[in-house]
Design brief:
Length: about 150
């Protein structure tokens, strides 16, 4: 019985450590996703009201996204949230914006949304080395938010 326990205990501890590391990676991926979601929402909320005219007849009021202001809002909020979450202390490093832009989601010629794609590396103690990913697992998170008129 004690021989069985001696053999089984390290395996159980290794499995628990693997589960703990995998869950930590899962939680950090979702925290990064929430930060990217918030940044894309900030970008899409950078709206500038404009009155659209066709000839001399007002067609209606549209809300048009200002791409420069949207970029500023999105990047600023992304950096603030990364600092607030202390990602470097939690094991998320090398956070980089791969792509960010104002988009025309309904293809009407008026920019009305914002898209952001971010990559980061998460330190892994067991999960990465056991799956062949190495000590750092690279993740990519993206979000798109649409400004409502």
């Amino acid at each position: 019985m004690s021989t069985f326990f001696v053999i089984l205990l390290p395996l159980v501890l290794m499995f628990m450590a693997l589960c703990f590391d995998g869950m930590r990676i899962f939680v950090l991926k979702h925290e990064l996703q929430s930060v990217v979601d918030a940044a894309s929402l900030a970008g899409s909320s950078a709206i500038q009201a404009k009155l659209t005219m066709v000839g001399n007849v007002p067609v209606g009021t549209h809300l048009e996204l200002d791409p420069i202001t949207a970029d500023l809002y999105a990047i600023e909020l992304l950096n603030e949230n990364i600092a607030k979450h202390n990602f470097d202390k939690q094991g998320i490093t090398n956070v980089q914006v791969i792509e960010n832009r104002a988009v025309d989601t309904d293809v009407d010629g008026i920019l009305d949304g914002y898209y952001m794609k971010v990559s980061a590396e998460i330190e892994s103690f067991l999960y990465g080395p056991l799956t062949g990913s190495g000590r750092k697992i690279t993740i990519v998170r993206e979000a798109e938010a649409r400004a409502k008129p």
